[in-house]
Amino acid sequence: MPRLGSGIPLVARTHEMRRLRAAFARAERGEAGAVLVAGDAGVGKTRLLAALGEHAAGRGALVLTGRCIDVRDGGLPYLPFAEALEPLGAAADPVVAAAVRVRPALRRLLPQGGVPEPAGGDHGQVSAGERDSARRPRPEQDLGQLQLFDAVLGVLTEIARDRPVVLVVEDLHWADPSTRDLLSVLLSRLRTQRLLVVGSYREEDVHRRHPLRGLLSELVRLATVERLELPPFAPADARAFVSALAEEPLHPQVIAEIAERSEGNPFFVEELLASGADCDDLPAGLAEVLLARLERLPDETRRVLRVVAVAGEGVSHAALAQVAGVGELELDDVLREAVQHHVLVIEDGFYVFRHALLQEAVYADLLPGERTRMHAGYAARIREIPQGRGKDAKLAYHSLESGDFGTALPALLRAMYEAEKLGAPGAALRHVERALSIWDAVPEDIRPDDVDEVKLLHEASYFSGTSGEPERAVAYARSAVDALTSETSPPHAAHTWRRYAEALLVLDGTFDEAMAAIERAWQLLEKEQPSAARAWVLAARAGFLRSGDRPDEALASALTAVADARSVGSAGAEASALVTLGTLADSSGDAAEARERLGEALRKAHDAGSLNVELRARYFLALSHDDQAELEPALAHAAQGAARAEETGLTWSSYGLELRARQLHLRYLSGDWPEQDEAGRGGRGVSSAVVARILAIWVLFLVARGRFDEAGQLVAELRRLWTADIQIALNAGDAAIQLAAWRGDHAKAVEGAEELVAWLEKVEPSLLGGIRVAALGMSSAVALAAEARARGDQRAEEAFVRSGRRLLEHGRRCATDGTPRSGTLGPEGRAWLARLEAAASGLHGQPDPARWSEAAEAFAYGAVYEQAVCRWHEASARLAAGQSGTAALEAAHEVAVKLGATPLRDAVRTLARRARVDLPGAEPAASPPGPSPLTERERDVLERVALGRTNRQVGEELYISEKTVSVHLSRVMAKLGASRRAEAVAIAYDRGLLTTPAE
Length: 999
Fold this sequence. Notes:
It is a single chain. The chain is mainly α. Helices cover 64% and strands 4% of the residues. The chain is built from 46 helices and 7 strands.
């Protein structure tokens, strides 16, 4: 990434820098030109021009820089040119000195000439008589000005004969008339000089009546002048800029929020970062800078801008007229002023601030009384307009801010339900939380009749859960249970207890508490007549009983729920019970019945609008196919469910999350690897544990694709979240083991596997995922044992063998004592068990090629990457046994290349080179420059001897006999004229025959 002299990265300005460098390159060739750089304040114009200056200076150019300043009375004439040319007056360079000396007119700009004199068009301090005479043409003054213009152009042209010149004039929006005139003449006379002129100006300050506007229109029509617009950073580039500026790593969500709030403006990013990553208030320094832009506007314009700021969004002309109390014609003039000065913009007929932070600054500058009155004015207007989308949310906001809680409460509740219908649970949660915050402040006699505090807490719990905040969901549900009284009706109380149970079920380690809560709900309705409330409780209870491994009770509860639901017409409750019946059928081994039940549940839930039940049905359909290794239909159901969750705003709900996680896992297995990062980091408020469920799967892709640094950082972040969800521990732990193994740190890989196994044995001793953990760790234990055996370290070998045996014991126990959903170990579990046994076959010597072949075939159900890894191990085992490993190598290489699995690809290619197998598409092994007396095999042998290998070890690595190694070494020593092995190695290094020793 290119960087500026300040050390701040020049993020995402590659295109702009390329254009500036191209203009400079043309100037170097004698094609003079000019570039006018336009952009908002703080967008990075100065940094960009500084980078150009460094580039030009590095190529021997003379870089001259001057800046216009903001002076209210017109500014000092020629100030930026005087600043830019100042170094010429004291230059020791004889070419520069001579060029200046022959042009006495330059004395008006150079330091020895004092303050530049006013020239035609300036507005300095003059007497009344002088002012009158200035209105008449003054030929002598015009002549002096032309002489100055010629002198500036002449000195630049003269110097440019010796070396290229870059003249930078910044902040042209503040340029005085003389500076504009000189710039105009200079740019119009650019021809074949080795000269580049670059000017910058703030786009938002050059309004329609600004004097620079007309000049710019004339200049851009010149063939030698081009305009370069510098926009704010795009979202991705803004995030990269935030990360680069931060002094320490920031959470991705914090980075995203700062980038979004700054709207890609680099200066705003710096100010927001300086105020603290977690600061929501606008930094005082930034607020002052923003408000300073408004100081020059008329009082009435600033007053209307305050009204716009209170709206908090785009505001119509009619609304502004009513709230501001300004007449239509007067308002037209005021708004025209604000638009022309680029403070407001018009979007879809509404007025909005050009930058959201400017709106924040204006709003923060309001007095309390102003805010209250204006919010009340907006609320009054909103009440008058017909019902429409978003009306209640706006009314609630302005009523809250004006202190009218009686109006705000019902509006918040209506906005909550509207947000739910629109698939925005996060917005619904904010509305209900605001309603809870003012509940006690609203008199009982004006509260809505159908709402009480328990209901609000219940809704807050539900929307917290669907927004990806399970901990808050539990907290609100617990508060709702605590708020129940003896006067609460049984259906209402049961509904509250059911919500509490469902919230608890999402968190690990709370199943017993959740089971107690659902039983409490059932006790309240057990003796009641069939009702929708009773059917929902029965359906939920059936699901809990199934999860608690009480299938008979679960079946009875589910069947009763179906009967109750059908008798009262509650299709959603019926669908929920049907999902449990489907999962029970799956557990008993009847996949056909399971899918029939789940399909029926899916249709009924969809028709009834029971979104969470619909997602649950879709998830278990995907799981049913996944259990049987039917990856294609499993992936289709998971993808459809994830899309439905996103469409309805339930992406981070319990089953929305599970569907997305299942989809990503299935894509990893099937080799449908996404090109870009599809993990996501969640939005504001989404629990880190919830997001980690996805990231723990994504890190597997990172490891497999060789993005080790990213993977290592993410693995470390996820380690502290193992206890939040066992799936996080399994996936992130597996990734950590593989990462260490691919990096060649087998000791760390074994350590990681043993740590994860020990953790699992405390949490869930016979978890089927433990087979995979054991298999991954076993490969590294075998590698360590083989290395110890090769160097004759029996004690170390025995220690690594013991580690392998512990892993083998754990994996076998998981396979026999685990409880598969379908009742028997499925294809995936059997495949990992086969891989574990294949790896274990090498604990005491050469691995069994047949075992590895069986493991590879076991993954043939569609796990293409895992199968390719097994083929690589199979090829190694076959070669060690003196067999051909070509077919296995080619199969593994093809998959690795297709997936972009670079660690596997490189490992396969290394093995192929050692075995002298040519792989399609693989580059040939690098050879030392020039002719070599050694054959490729002789060089392979000598490389390993250089690493201290014995003849036996060299033979094992190259799959040849120890005697053959000795023969090759004898030939090498003869060719090199060496009498000993060490001498042969030294000669080979001296002659460049050995460059990169093989590892």
